[in-house]
Design a protein that fits this description.
The protein has 619 residues and is of the alpha/beta class. The structure holds thiamine diphosphate. Thiamine diphosphate (TPP) binds at residues 45, 48, 71, 73-74, 115-116, 144-147, 172, 174, 176-178, 281, 340-342, 364, 366, 391, 394.
Length: 619
């Protein structure tokens, strides 16, 4: 039996002799490769925190102590060490383990994670509550250098000085977000990295002793060191020190002994302590070390070659957007592009290559990205801000306050809108329609296929107002290419004229509506099919006209019910006193779990067969 297999429950790791820990680290890396090569997931970040997580689990008691992972994509090792190793086979699968931390999954997970830059805030909350309750648990946050660039992290660092008790922040610095980390803070960490060697263990201990009340000073003088010389030894993290946060580092984040010494020392401090651990993203797997961005999040792959197992053919919505941006930028010099640390995910990488001066990676900083775009638009440029639906939630106030209130022509490319699949509830793009369509001045559109996505960007540039275009994860369809009525503000596209049942679908659901229409036709029902292109507007005239020949209106959308187009249609029908029934096909107001997109569509009744059955029940 391997060492990892002997860890059946949280805290079992403490039974393993210290000398065997490097072997355990090897076994964990093997297991990480095994799981992610089968299930997909976040590989490189987990390979980078193996030793940090081992050291933490040797010193913390679970579930009493609180370990908060930022983003949580690097929590697989923690899962393996807290009784979930066997269940890792189910990682990211329907009803299996989540790819992030979740207290509903284990009492060893201190917080829900998935979105970046919240860990220090949550840790401060735990530590402050501990002070108020008079309990003694340890509180540790693990955060990457990428996530440290996010605004909330800096708000938390600012607030940390107020904390009287201990909280430990491990800064896992691998010089990378998904791509290379960017900006002034990243440069500052870079300077520390290049100007010092690893701090030696003795000086960490010395620093810890210094902070033990009463005996610290005494022992310290015993080892003939002055406070100033210690400060100078540790001067590298002065920015943190000046903020009132004790800095320890840099240390080798792959040396279990060094991490353990640093932690032991850090736990003795009153107040916040930051341990700066240098790590290698992808550590121990050659392909991931060489290509950390590619191996940040992986689909199933061959461990021997590093190649993805089944690359699906066809263009994705993201790649259509990516090419369209090149075409638009060539024609219109005012176009600039902004990403919040996702040049690859959003497809803006090629724009960056071709137009480096017109491309801005602002770090994990969605709020800043949107307000920054407002400034650019106010100066006559045409910014396109590409942010996944789920991360755009961060920038809600900036969209309202900085962009829409001034009616600025910023274009929001809202990628991964709808069900995203295996990343689960923190990543589903199901709220944007609700929160965007209530904002005055903002035109919200959703394309039925790749060609319409391109047309929507052309069209958005002709409008002198803010526009959001929501499009899904996955491949574009060619099934609807023959329907190409020109875009006209707030006008829907009638794809098929019929009677009795009117299917009003948005985005990806238009293709499903067409298929449902075929099934109904086989039953002798000739349904009307409408492509609802403008989500913020109900075309009341059209609905009134159709109500003469249709008794059932079916709305079909991949969003949550509250704030959906379906709700807006229902109220328009009531307002106009129309005598028709409605069936709203959308997701219930729940946090949709992980699974494949197809599985989740089926579970929530959005697939062709389920929609057809629901309509038949209404007839
Ligand atoms: C608010 C938000 N924006 C974007 C992302 C997408 N994202 C996931 S991990 C990641 C990079 C994190 O880098 P870092 O914190 O340094 O961790 P590493 O993966 O390098 O260990 C990004 C941008 C996110 N999870 N949350």
């Amino acid at each position: 039996m391997g060492l990892l297999d002997s860890i059946k429950n949280a805290n079992d790791i403490k039974k393993i002799p210290e000398k065997d820990l490097p072997v355990l680290a090897e076994e964990i890396r093997k297991r990480l490769l095994e799981i992610t090569s089968q299930n997909g997931g976040h590989l490189a970040s987990n390979l980078g925190v193996v030793e940090i997580t081992i050291a933490l689990h040797r010193l913390l008691d679970f579930p009493e102590d609180k370990l908060i992972f930022d983003v949580g994509h690097q929590s697989y090792v923690h899962k393996m060490l807290t009784g979930r190793n066997e269940a890792m086979e189910t990682l990211r699968k329907l009803d299996g383990l989540s790819g992030f931390t979740d207290p509903n999954e284990s009492d060893c997970d201190a917080s829900i994670s998935g979105h970046a830059s919240n860990a220090i805030s949550i840790a401060l909350g735990y530590a402050t509550a501990r002070e108020l309750k008079g309990t003694y648990e340890k509180v540790v946050a693990v955060i990457g250098d990428g996530s440290l660039t996010g605004g909330m992290s800096n708000e938390a660092l600012n607030n940390a000085a107020n904390l009287k008790g201990n909280v430990v922040i491990i800064l896992n610095d691998n010089e990378r977000s998904i791509s290379a980390n960017v900006g002034g803070l990243a440069n500052y960490l870079g300077k520390i990295r290049t100007s010092t060697k690893y701090i030696n263990t003795k000086s960490i201990i010395r620093k810890g002793l210094e902070h033990i009340p009463f005996i610290g000073e005494h022992i310290k003088s015993g080892i003939h060191t002055t406070k100033e010389s210690i400060k100078r030894l540790l001067v590298e993290g002065m920015m943190f020190e000046d903020l009132g946060i004790t800095y320890i580092g840099p240390i080798d984040g792959h040396d279990i002994e060094q991490i353990t010494d640093a932690l032991n020392s850090a736990f003795r401090f009153e107040g916040p302590v930051l341990i700066h651990a240098l790590t290698v993203k992808g550590k121990g797997y050659e392909y991931a070390e060489k290509h950390p961005a590619q191996f940040h999040g992986v689909n199933p792959f061959d461990i021997e070659t590093g190649d993805e197992l089944s690359k699906s053919s066809g263009k994705s919505y993201t790649s259509v957007f990516s090419s369209k941006m090149l075409e638009l930028a060539e024609k219109d010099k005012r176009i600039v592009a902004i990403t919040a640390a996702m040049p690859f995910g959003t497809g803006l990488y090629y724009f960056h290559k071709k137009y480096p001066d017109r491309f801005f990676d602002v770090g994990i900083a969605e709020e800043h990205a949107v307000a920054f775009a407002a400034g650019l638009a106010s100066s006559g440029l045409r910014p396109v801000v590409a942010i996944y639906s789920t991360f755009l939630q961060r920038a809600y106030d900036q969209i309202i306050h900085d962009v829409c209130m001034s009616n600025l022509p910023v274009i929001f490319a809202v990628d991964r809108a709808g069900i995203v699949g295996n990343d689960g509830k923190t990543h589903q793009g199901l709220f944007d329609e609700s929160f965007l369509t209530s904002i005055p001045n903002l035109v919200v559109m959703s394309p039925k296929n790749g060609r319409e996505l391109e047309e929507m960007f052309d069209y958005a540039l002709t409008l002198n107002c803010p526009v959001a275009i929501r499009y899904p994860r996955g491949k574009v369809t060619n099934a609807l290419d023959e329907y190409d009525a020109p875009l006209e503000l707030n006008k829907d596209e009638i794809i098929r004229h019929g009677s009795e049942v009117c299917l009003m679908a948005t985005g990806v659901m238009v293709e499903t509506a067409l298929k449902v229409g075929e099934k109904l036709r086989a039953d002798g029902i000739n349904a009307t099919i409408v492509n609802v292109r403008f989500l913020s507007h109900v075309n009341e005239e059209l609905v009134e006209q159709l109500s003469n020949s249709h008794k059932l209106f079916v709305t079909m959308e991949e969003v949550i019910e509250h704030g959906s187009y379906g709700e807006r249609l229902n109220s328009a029908i009531i307002k106009n006193g129309l005598n028709v029934k409605t069936l709203n096909v959308s997701l219930p107001n729940v946090f949709v779990e992980h699974g494949t997109i197809a599985e989740l569509r089926q579970r929530y009744g959005l697939d062709e067969e389920s929609v057809y059955q629901r309509i038949k029940k209404q007839m």
